[in-house]
Design brief:
With 133 residues, the protein is mainly alpha-helical. 55% of the residues lie in helices and 11% in strands. The chain is elongated and about 55 Å long. The chain starts with 9 loop residues before the first helix and ends in a 6-residue tail after the last helix.
């Protein structure tokens, strides 16, 4: 099963990830362009893509601009901003952010890959003023 971003369904995630990949700077895509680019990976009806983009707009995940009779879409935030917001919300709603983070990084057989552990060590060192390690 494919993963979904927090607060988004699987299709919404696929569409938003496509927009992140395809929209650099001020670039944007029409519903048809999104539908065509998804076709190789996940063929969807045009109306389905239009509905998903409308839901993403309603959730504030994308912005849109009226061009002619349709809209052109782009992500409202970067992947990093989206992830930081989702993580912040999770930590705020956990009741004990420190306990949650400690559980995540220390549990045996946990979800933290060695590369991610290295990232945490580098961040910790940077916050302590030790630079990169």
């Amino acid at each position: 099963m494919a993963h979904s971003l927090p607060g988004l369904g699987e299709l919404e995630t696929a569409v938003l990830e496509l927009l992140w990949d395809e929209c650099a700077g001020d670039d944007d895509l029409s519903v048809r362009e999104v539908s065509d680019r998804l076709a190789d990976r996940r063929p969807l009806a045009y109306t389905t893509v239009m509905t998903v983009l409308a839901h993403l707009y309603d959730k504030g995940a994308v912005t849109r601009e009226k061009v002619g009779r349709g809209y052109r879409y782009r992500p409202a935030r970067s992947r990093e901003d989206f992830g930081a917001d989702a993580l912040g919300e999770l930590l705020r709603s956990s009741g004990d952010a420190e306990k949650l983070l400690l559980h995540f990084v220390s549990r045996e057989g946990g979800d933290l890959a060695p590369e991610e552990a290295g990232v945490l060590r580098r961040i910790t060192a940077r916050l302590r003023g030790g630079g990169d390690t």
